[in-house]
Specification:
Helices cover about 70% and strands about 0% of the residues. It has helices at about 10-25, 35-70. The chain has a domain at about 50-79.
Length: about 80
């Protein structure tokens, strides 16, 4: 980003954007240790339930496929 010495070389639109960006940089919150702890806690929770959820999804897909085969749906229907 340019310094204040280059302010004369900026167009009015560029000066406006530069002001907006400076305001955002000043107001930006600094992430603390609680953010990292929260991310790790959620990742561990998701890893714990991933296997049972995938198994339940596979079972549900197998049931749907079985019902579709029993009804003859999905293979061109009744001929």
């Amino acid at each position: 980003m340019s310094t204040d010495d280059d302010g004369d070389q900026l167009t009015p639109a560029e000066r406006r954007v530069s002001g907006f960006l400076r305001g955002l940089a000043e107001d930006a919150p600094v992430p603390g240790a609680s953010l990292a702890a929260g991310v790790v806690r959620k990742a561990r929770w998701q890893r714990t339930v991933r296997t049972p959820l995938r198994a339940a999804g596979g079972l549900a897909a197998a049931l749907v496929d079985g019902v579709r085969m029993a009804l003859g749906v999905g293979r061109g229907g009744a001929r």
